[in-house]
Design brief:
Strand 9 and strand 10 form a beta hairpin. The longest helix is centred in the N-terminal third of the chain and has 23 residues. By secondary structure, the chain is of the alpha+beta class. The chain contains 3 helices and 18 strands.
Length: about 290
Amino acid sequence: MFNFRKMFLALQLLAAGMLVNESIAKNPNKTPSKASITYLGIEDNNSWDDSSELHFFRVPFKFENGKWAAMPHSPQNEEEIIKTINLYPEKLTFLPNTIATRNREIKYCATGSFKVKLDSARKSTVLSTASNVKLKKSKTITLSESDKQKVSHALKNKLPAYSQYNDQRDLIGKFEWTIADLEFKGISAGGHTFIKVNLKPELEKDPMAGFNDHIEDIQSEPAGDFLTHLYVLVNGEPVFLGKNLEFLECADYANNNSTQFIFRRSAYNFDGYLLFNNSFKDKVHYGWSYH
């Protein structure tokens, strides 16, 4: 006797398989097991020979199961380098049409890097595998005296003095600074005001400033060398984000109704990126060394 129930179930399974195949064809980054992963790629040619037609992108972050996380990084030896490289996808498509192929060079600084042939229409430093990502505008702004005073007060509580050295790095002395000794730069991005502050160049007389500023100092409170410090105004009050941070871009890179802010970070034998999310309550770090 013909079993209509089994035939109906078979037709349902066939239809489901056709829908999955159609979805994969429309988005090459998606597979049935990793359909929820969004990857970010950041243009990063600082360490490479950029005379070729290829550019290099770093893939530092992914969005999976509702959370941003760092991709594998910071291998300690050649064996770990090979293992780390193999944890990345072979190929990614950053929408709308930038194809990235995994770089297989066995170097500390090569982990997480991808080779890309850039299209001339691309205007963003940060690319996403998610669709319909719209970059949020950013611009340099003039800061009010009130905002400068707030940041100056916050910095003074943590770092009241700066050191000066001669060329042999013998300590000349420590000097308390005033707001007149500082330089400020304001950036408006994604509805927030960022304030960079540092000593005026003529006062920064430390030939080794920043040399010992390692990875653990990225999110530490201001201390040690008087480097460029970055604050963001939250409800009108300054919140410290880190030292030697360069703002890149911001957008809702995973289409989850939240803006991510991407920064580049450099220190001695170290480069990396920071991603801030959830109104700066969450941060994700990614980095690599050179030797």
